[in-house]
Design a protein that fits this description.
five-stranded parallel beta sheet; about 475 residues; globular
Length: about 475
């Protein structure tokens, strides 16, 4: 019997001293030998809990077994039966809270590195130009409009094209990919990878139309006159602010704007890309999620001398992936924990100081995390010249506001049937962050898969 290996095969990374001076991807990925070594750790359980932990239902033991045998092409073929974006998922999905969390090996050590193996397989296939196209069903001559080219929209499009339907994706921005291109930095998800995955969906047969704002260029009702069904996957693009005094000073950004300028509009390549962005020396990022880590790490690469995370709870309550927190710490991001901003102070219209108050943790709240409680009289100031607010965002309001008969929840989300993605309006489906609020890439993809099945049935039967 093979010896049980308790730890994951390490993945090499860009040295800490080098990576804060560039936007190149930090992890290098596995070599063939490393991938095989890691894949051989898989126990190939008869009851594979990992599959149940995957929102898009990948045959995880199956593709890993192929990797263990060096059958990388077969692994890619099996992987892409369920996932049209494997190179993306392998990089940014929180496997530690999903498939890897329920891996049997995690009871006695570290789980199988499912995400790293997924990334390896996708990259191996692409680097060798061996991308295979799956067989598609006979054309149905039915037409579907997908609003938004983020992870939910791309999944819906990929699934429905393979089922024989004609799919057109309408994207408001000038490049497809949604949050994958505007929200996630180059050092975590290279834009060439996103472009490659989008190109795969296009090669499957989906048509992508950019710079087309549904709700402005045309409405959902107008799309329904031409298409048999519409899927809305416009994401969560409405940033939250705290509403505290001084928040309108120059130098205070939403994380959406800060990251969009840097990622999609390539501000970090100025003057090659003429996109202005404040290159602060003392940057404070408010929040404790992945977006906050992305913003703080971006600030370092833009030349910040001090990049700080300001978070009202302790490190244990941070919602960011452990990997992202570790990378931020390694790179020199400073953590001001149990700290809450209450006011900004400025000079001549520009932010100069952030006034904060210390917090202590009380009883757990609805999220299960201990509620932060202010400590009276603990106010203090931090010198800043740039602030990035990364405390969350709401669903994009444009489509709901321009679509009569579409039920919307109290937080601006489109109300859907969780088992089908159906909305209150006949022929209209929705999924991803527009329905749930800001969540993960893989959950949006899972919602897309659910909706695609229901859309196929509706298109073929006409039953709502």
């Amino acid at each position: 019997m093979a010896k049980l290996v308790r730890e994951k095969t390490p993945m090499k990374e860009q040295p800490v001293g080098e990576r804060t001076s560039n936007f190149d991807e930090v992890p290098y990925g596995y070599s063939e030998e490393e991938a095989i070594q890691e894949a051989k750790r898989c126990l190939r359980c008869k009851k594979a809990f990992c599959v149940g932990g995957c929102p898009v239902e990948i045959d995880i033991p199956g593709f890993i077994q192929h990797v263990a045998k060096g059958e990388f092409r077969q692994a890619a073929r099996l992987l892409k039966e369920k996932n049209v974006l494997p190179a993306i998922c392998g990089r940014v999905c929180p496997q530690e809270d999903q498939c890897e969390k329920v891996c049997v090996l995690s009871k006695k050590g570290e789980p199988v590195a499912i995400g790293r193996l997924e990334r390896f397989v996708a990259d191996w296939e692409a680097q060798r130009g061996m991308v295979e196209m799956p067989r598609k069903a006979e054309p149905t001559e039915k037409k579907v409009a997908v609003v938004g080219s983020g992870p939910a929209g791309l999944t819906v499009a990929g699934d429905l094209v393979q089922l024989g339907h004609e799919v057109t994706i309408f994207e408001a921005l000038h490049k497809p990919g949604g949050v994958l291109v505007y929200g996630i930095p180059e050092f975590r998800l290279p834009k060439a990878i996103v472009a490659r995955e989008v190109e795969y969906v296009e090669k499957l047969g989906a048509k992508v139309v950019t710079s087309f704002v549904v709700g402005n260029t045309c409405t959902v009702d107008e799309l329904l006159q031409e298409f048999d069904a519409v899927f809305v996957g416009t994401g969560a693009g409405l940033p939250w602010f705290m509403g505290i005094p001084g928040e309108n000073y120059n130098g205070i950004y939403s994380a959406n704007e800060y990251l969009t300028r840097t990622n999609l509009m390539r501000a970090y390549l100025f003057p090659e890309y003429d996109t202005p962005i404040v290159r602060g020396k003392r940057v404070a990022v408010i929040g404790g999620g992945n977006v906050a880590m992305d913003s703080a790490r971006t600030a370092l690469r833009l030349g910040a001398e001090h990049s700080m995370i300001i978070y009202r709870r302790s490190k244990a309550e941070m919602p960011a992936r452990v990997e992202e927190i570790v990378h931020a710490e390694e790179e020199g991001v400073e953590f001001e924990l149990l700290t809450l901003p209450v006011m900004y102070h400025g000079v001549k219209g520009w932010v100069k100081e952030m006034e904060c108050i210390r917090m202590q943790l009380g009883e757990p709240d609805a999220s299960g995390r201990r509620r932060p409680v202010p400590v009276d009289g603990s106010n203090f100031r931090i010198e800043v010249d740039t602030v990035v607010v990364a405390i969350g965002q709401s669903p994009n309001p444009l489509v709901p506001a321009t679509t009569p008969g579409l039920e919307v929840g109290k937080h601006g989300n489109i109300v859907v049937d969780s088992e089908t993605g159906k909305t209150s309006k006949k022929g209209v489906f929705a999924g991803g962050d527009i329905a749930t609020g800001a969540a993960t890439v893989i959950l949006a993809m899972g919602a897309g898969r659910v909706a695609a099945r229901a859309m196929d049935e509706y298109i073929r039967t006409g039953k709502w």
